[in-house]
Amino acid sequence: MGIKILVVDDEPDVRDLLANLLADAGYEIEEMTDGRDIVARATSWRPALIILDLTMPNVDGFEALKLLKADPRTAGIPVIVASAQTQKETLVSVGDLGAADFLVKPWEPGEAEWRVGQCLKLCSEERAA
Amino acid sequence: MSENRFDTSKLDIREFKARLDYLELTELTDTDARLLQSLSSWADSVAGDFAKKFYDRQFKQAGFVKIVEAAGSNRQRLEGAQAAYMKSLFDGLPDAQYIAMRQHIGSLHARIDVTPDWYISSYQWYAELLYPMVRSKLRLKRGAANRAVLAISKLLLFDQAIIMDEYVKQVVELARERQEMLDKENTELQRLDRSKNEFLSGLSHELKTPLAAMLGFTNILSRNSDKRLDPDHLDKLNRIDRNGRRLDTLIADLLDLSKIESKQITLSIESINVAELIDEVRASFEIIVSGKGQSLVAESDHGPAWITGDRGRIYQVVSNLVSNASKYSEKGAEIVIRSETLAKRLFVSVIDEGPGLEKQDQDRLFDLFYRTAEAEKSATPGTGIGLYICRKIVEMHGGEISVVSERGSGATFTVKLPGVEYTAPVTIADDRPRFQNRLADLPATA
Question: Which helix (H) or strand (E) holds B55?
């Protein structure tokens, strides 16, 4: 079984795209359409990394990120925020909330896989240290 | 303003006495006061005629009558001007008209040479003219006549003071009303501006999300991992990708433009190593430029140098200039990014071997939406937003952007920035989590 990545995005096409790209890169993918029950899902399925959209119905990315970071069982899972909102305030606030990285939509070819790879590498280095 | 304000006969005797008290003329008897009241109203109405009838001949040579006449007619005109000025306040006429009105009043003041107490002086003339009349008609002694005339003229001044006081009050009140109106308008505009910005940020999200899916799937197809696509298919996919990215750039430009126009743009100031920044730009364009058979060179005439500014924004400006240089140059052309310092100033030039620019284009190139006739004719993609954004960003850094060109022999775009340092700045540790590649976090450039 490959490394597990949870993709959370309300746009089916963007979700499929990420799932496609990351499955091609050898990861195991699960998908969620918004941030509801994200902590429960992350606790039971135990992904190595979460890709999180910001603008979603019900529980949005900001809220989901807060929930993940507030729970000790999920606080250690790195989260890459994927959004088209590129205002500095947004970047800073998700950074402050504990996001590991930011993927700007639309991204460059190969960028999504590269960021996921880098993020996992950095995290495993941190754990080893 | 209304002539009846001067008509003291409409005051009752108590009020009249109160005025005299105010003027410290309390030694006057009631009879005196009554006399003065009738005199002053009479004087006010007949002074002009009186001056004409009795003093025409006598003072003609000295030009006094002319002055009195001029004062009278100027007073009317001045009152007209003031009324118009107040009307302008009230109706909210454009500032230019208000200024013209003020200039008009100023010139009238200057012509009777009594600024700002022009009313007072014209009344003093009347009072002086009254003196012989008071003496002869009322057969008052010299001292009593003096006192009466003084009382009348002071009274007239007092009236004037009341009028001016009221005038000031009215102006203040109108100004206050106007201010309230403007405050209300302002609040409304701020609200509209906020909703516009919310709309734009929402819109950009809505536009970029489908673009992300389109470009991403195009990219997956382009990998041609199952080798089912022929070169023609791949070329078409490449076109989809290129145009999608143009759309992405356009969205970023429109967002920047809306931020600049609503003054919402803020700079994150830090120390920037000039050579590093230029090398980043050069590196990011290397593939694009070499793909078009062009070459990109960075040159510098100075050692290590730092400027203070928003790294992302300066990067955006230089990238934009390089992107333009490449866009308008032929295959085989060389593009140079040259960095020079002069005292505390930095000059970053982007030099191309493109078709160059006409003089009239150079003057307007940094205007919003301006595109040269050549660019329009050759259907070179562009919106006329990029260079305007560049200009605004450079100006926000206290710098200037300019172009030197001659038709047929390329163009040199130069960004001048102040405040160059030649020693490494002291860096302050920032433990905020950092994203892996800042440059990719920044909006794309045109």
Answer: helix B30-59
Size of interface A-B (CB pairs under 8 A): 88
Ordered structural domains, chain A, with CATH: 4-128 (3.40.50.2300)
The residue that leads in pLDDT, B268 or A31, is A31
Instruction: Return the DSSP state at B3.
Output: G
Name residues 25-54 of chain A within 8 A of B (Cβ). none
Of A3, A17, A2, nearest in space to A112 by CA: A17
Check residue B386 and report its DSSP letter: H
CB pair distance less than 8 Å for B204 and A107: no
Find the Cα–Cα–Cα–Cα dihedral A65, A69, A70, A74, rounded to 10°. Answer: 110
- The DSSP annotation for B229-285 comes to --HHHHHHHHHHHHHHHHHHHHHHHHHHHHHHHTT-----EEEEEHHHHHHHHHHHH
DSSP B401-432: EEEEE-TTS-EEEEEEE---BSSPPPPPP--S
Instruction: Using CA coordinates, name the residue in chain B closest to A54.
Output: B205
Question: Residues B285, B326: contact at Cβ < 8 Å?
Answer: yes
**Residue of chain A whose alpha carbon sits nearest to that of B247:** A106
Nearest CA in chain A to B264: A87
**Site from A105, A107, A118 to mutate, B interface, most B CB atoms within 10 angstroms:** A105
8 Å CB contact between B364 and B323: no
Nearest to B441 among A96, A102, A106 (CB): A102
The answer to whether B143 faces chain A, any CB pair under 8 Å, is no
User: pLDDT tens digits for B264-309?
Assistant: 777 888 899 999 999 999 998 988 898 889 999 999 999 999 999 9
Give A101 to chain B, closest Cα distance, Å. 5
- Tens of pLDDT, residue by residue over B106-116, are 444 444 443 33
Q: Write down the residue that tokens 């001056």 correspond to.
A: B51
Is domain B269-441 classified as CATH 3.30.565.10?
A: yes
* Cα-based distances in Å from B412 to A94, B336, B404, B409: 41, 9, 5, 10
With an 8 Å Cβ cutoff, is A2 touching chain B?
no
The token pair that represents B409 in the structure block: 């022999």
Helix (H, G, I), strand (E, B) or coil at A7: strand
Is this prediction's ipTM beyond 0.85? Answer: no
Cα gap B277→B314, rounded to integer Å:
8
Which chain B residues are closer than 8 Å to A55 by Cβ?
Answer: 205
SS3 helix, strand, coil % of chain A, rounded to 5?
A: 45, 20, 35
Is residue B316 within 8 Å of residue B305, measured between CB atoms?
no
DSSP annotation of A5: E
